[in-house]
Amino acid sequence: MSGPRVLVTGATGLVGSAIVRALLKRQRSVRILARDPGSARVLFGPRVEIAAGDLGDAEGLRRACQGMGQVYHVAGAVDTHRHGDAEILDTNVEGTRRLLAAARATGISGLVYMSSVSVYGDGLPLGVAEDAPLNPAGIYGISKVRAERLVREAVAADLRAVIVRPCIVYGPGDRYFMPQVTQVLRLPVIPLPNGGRHLVDLVHADDLAAACLLIMEAGQPGEAYNVTDGGHHQLGEMLRWIAEALNRSPWFPSIPWWFAARVRSLIQAAGRVWGPPELARLGRQELKGLFSDYHFDISKVAALGYAPRIDARAGLRSEVRTMTIDLR
Question: For a designed S-S bond to 111, which of 27, 161, 177, 284 qualifies (C-beta 3.0 to 4.6 A apart)?
Fold first, then answer.
């Protein structure tokens, strides 16, 4: 094995597992923090060391960091419908505080913190860069802003740490984006906000993992880096790509904001009957998000040498095929 030993939190999730794969490919020695060591062992086999624990256990985090050189902190509470506000704040903010304390106490030499473009909020201009104001619209984004603040405080206390802000992530093990989209595409009629012309950024988990390893080595302490696939993808375009791969041909009528706001209760009812449950829980904030552009500037990470390799159309079609095989 070469290079510093590495601890990965959230290693059984979409992004964390991609980071573990990338590290193992580089012959790095990897330890993962896992609440369920049995499931983690099934996923990775003997290739990794497993430390049982979670972000709520300060002493367990200290033990997990002991002997490590670097940490990729990916674990966090993402599903705002499944986790309450208090749980999200405790996991994403206080859990990060505990991990940072453990990292400093054990002499960790480098840490990557997985944040999110949700820190910027909604109603954004095109090409949002890392120096844009942070104005999160919901509790998840708020938790990430607070955790980023803790990371910068740790940097000021001599921990070399960097921040990664990914957009929507898809790839092997995706439990959110692709499953939700494919369920929506079962419907015969899918109204698209303003015809689906709004831009939505994506990145494949493997490209994000490559960016994280690069940022760990070349990023500046305390700095944040947006990571996307660098494309300009319209929502309607992406939905049609996925529908085509699913051999589906729903009708995509265009609807304006005023109409969507008035029929939100009908959309919720359709979600309760046909799914997915996300439609049933469609709040005003989520609806507003569907009428917003989410396109981010990645020139900062590109200057480090980041060059995404996975084309969105090909990547999405590949994930559809994988999901179809899994269902069979």
Answer: 161
Cα(122)–Cα(119) distance, rounded to whole angstroms?
A: 9
* pLDDT of res. 3: 80
CB 291 within 8 A of CB 198: yes
pLDDT digits (tens, 9 = 90+) for 21-55: 999 999 999 999 999 999 899 999 999 999 999 99
**Architecture of domain 6-170+201-230+295-309 in this structure:** 3-Layer(aba) Sandwich (3.40)
Higher pLDDT, 256 or 103: 103
At 296, give phi and psi (nearest 5°).
-125, 145
**Reported pTM:** 0.92
